Fold this protein.
Amino acid sequence: MNKPKRHKSKLIQEIQQNRSAAEFEKTKKRMLLAVKIQDAIKAKGYTYTQFAKMMDQHVSVISKWVSGTHNFTTETLFEIEEKLEISLINTGEEKPAEIINKFELTVSINPKDILTSEYSNYLNPGILDRYVSLQGGMAATVNS
């Protein structure tokens, strides 16, 4: 098996050093978009030729789309979404953010009101808390 050769080119090093983080992020997003389209085409069982006919495009255009170099219009992305039944653009309509509300409930009760005399030895605050906890109930505190 041949191992890939590592080329040390001053030009390649210069290009890599001069790329901005923003340019790198744009390229990364284009590639991820292209992969998502390509995966959807494969998942539907379409060939590029079949998908090109559905989109009324040439196969070469579809190849450009899945290469990650194409600059899409929103209209094209909307049409791709429709034909492949996928979501490419997050407009925030798909799923609202989950809202979690936290509440604190304090219940006050005198243990003597709920425990019979046989449990009177549990009235010690530490022991009562452990007993309630072991029974799977709420944690309890005793206020004197």
